[in-house]
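REVIEWER CHECKLIST
Item 1: Sequence provided? yes
Item 2: Single chain? yes
Item 3: Sequence as submitted:
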Amino acid sequence: MNQDNLWIDTLKFDDRGLIPAIAQDARDGTVLMMAWMNRESIQQTLETGEMHYWSRSRQELWHKGATSGHIQKVKSLYYDCDADAILVKIEQVGDVACHTGARSCFFNEVSLRENLKLK
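Item 4: Structure as written out by the authors:
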């Protein structure tokens, strides 16, 4: 393994070898999506400069945008204080991250007034 990538060994993968990864727009900070990564997808991401994830439903490596053209170019990568989550700041090509065609996967807003009994 590349000595520069030893930080990967500090990550806390779950029992399936996965870690959650948040993709955030590097320009404006919008959270675009959450997906899962494993060691192989992290390595592919570092080697190509484009996001690769692990598809739990298909059980295979997934190059984001390989079929849609909406690739994600890596600008910076972080892991959290517990080393159990990754944040990747990206350039979203085509400005569409969600498989629904939306810019962000996070478009279902919950009414806090109703759900938290706010006054």
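Item 5: Key structural point noted by reviewer: The radius of gyration is 16 Å.
Item 6: Recommendation: ____
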